[in-house]
Structure formats: C-alpha cells, structure tokens
C-alpha cells in the first residue's frame, strides 16, 4: 500500500512545524487512522505499535470514552465544553457529538478546543470552519499548563460563560504533564474557575492493572516518548482517583475505571482486540458540588 504523502494537509509551512521530532498529536492521529501526520510521526508510531500492539485499540477506547462523557454531560444539562489537549480533530469531535444530540434551537451548546501543537490547531480551526460551527465552537492554541492564558484567550471569552457549568475535559493529556508541572495544582486551577454543576473528566495512560508483558511494553513506549516533543508518564489508579475524588467534588459513577467500562452503551461487547486493550488507561469524571 502506498504511503500517504509526506505532508500533513494543512496550510502550515515546514518552519512552523518541528519535523525533526514526532509529536503526540500527530502520532495519535496516526493511531486513529488519520492522515495529518508526517513520516517522522508514522515511523515512531509504527515502532510504538510493534512494541505495544494494543496502542491503536487503546486510542479508540479513549476516543469512545470522550464521546460518552460528552453525551452524559449533555444529558445532565451541561452546555459548555472546554477540551484541553484536543489533538488533531478526527471523527467524533465534541461539536459532532453536540450536533448528534439535537438540542432545541434556543438551547445552545458551546465548545472551546485547546491544543498547543501547530498542526492540531491549524486543523482544528479548519474543521470548525468546514463544519460551519464557528459561531459556537472555537480553538485556542495555548499550553493548558498555563490556565491564566487559556482563560484569558479571546476565544474563551467569546465562547464560555464562567457563571454557567462547564465540562472540562483532560482526555489523554495529563500523561504529558510531568510531576514537575504539578498536575494536582493544575487541576485545582481549573476547578476553582468553574461553578457548581461543572464536570472534570480525565483519562490517563497506565499499566498498574495490565498483564506483566503488556505493562512492560507500554512502559517501553512511554520511555521512548522522552525523545519526542511530548515526554510522557504513566500513573496508577490511586493517583488518578486522588486527582478526581477531592473535597467539594463528587466522583461520578462508576468511579475510576478503564475507558470501555465508563458507562458503556448497554449491550456493548468487546472483541478480543478491544478486550486486550482494556487495561492501559484509567478514566473518570467528577462533578462540582
Ligand atoms: C493523545 S492526544 C489526545 C487528543 C484528544 N484529547 C483525545 O483524547 O482524543 C494529546 C494531545 O494533547 C496535546 N497536549 C499535550 N500537552 C499539552 C499542553 N500542555 N497544552 C496543550 N495541549 C497539549 C498534544 O498536542 C496532543 O494533541
């Protein structure tokens, strides 16, 4: 099969993208079957898949978790979404899930996507324009470790009303935040800026519930991410629980579980490949009292 063109289909010039190092956003796009990636990303992604064959199925589980959280938040009456570490937009973006929900015309939902990676940001803006959702959807190219910059961004100010609940999504992004950047403190910064009724959703790579061989394999991949633009860390269930189950917040049912186990669609059955990929992330959602 021919390789996709060695260009991501964006308006970006090479000088705007670091082509010497793979990026988490573009590798994740490759894991999900997208085309917004460069040779350096595909090479690294293929090596990751050889080392840890569950990588693609794990990414898909994660994407499905995101979808179900947005559906649950909409069902709970939340109408604003702040998606931190959006990635290169692919199918099942938050605005797609909102559209599928068929809200009444006067019942408006809004979404702000945040990513600091130039390809993810350029694609995000283009997808929002192509999908004709720029009235209620926007993208801020920001480092989410700087909440003041995120909340001060003109797109945030245009789109999100901070006196109304927001669903803040940290989906597969906190494993790119090292302990030196104090994830708990960072989460507190987001928690304090949202009103009661808001949600925080997290999914995070892990290996504490994985079989020994798989646990070693994902660890090797994580170690190799040190050479990319996005060093990565694994954390265990206790750590993720401690980030979500905090005073003033309620950890929503079913608690901190693997992504396919968070409120699966009734009757969902995992095939062998999906089952194999179950234990490599933890996920959960908490609501502000
Ligand atoms: C694995 S992708 C996850 C994409 C999406 N959240 C999902 O789960 O489908 C992680 C994304 O987080 C972004 N990212 C990592 N650290 C970030 C930071 N400090 N600020 C903003 N984006 C970040 C990367 O550029 C990448 O696009």
UniProtKB/TrEMBL annotation:
GO terms for biological process: methylation. Keywords: Methyltransferase, Transferase. Pfam families: Methyltransf_19. One of its GO terms (molecular function) is methyltransferase activity. This is SAM-dependent methyltransferase. The lineage of its organism: Bacteria, Bacillati, Actinomycetota, Actinomycetes, Pseudonocardiales.
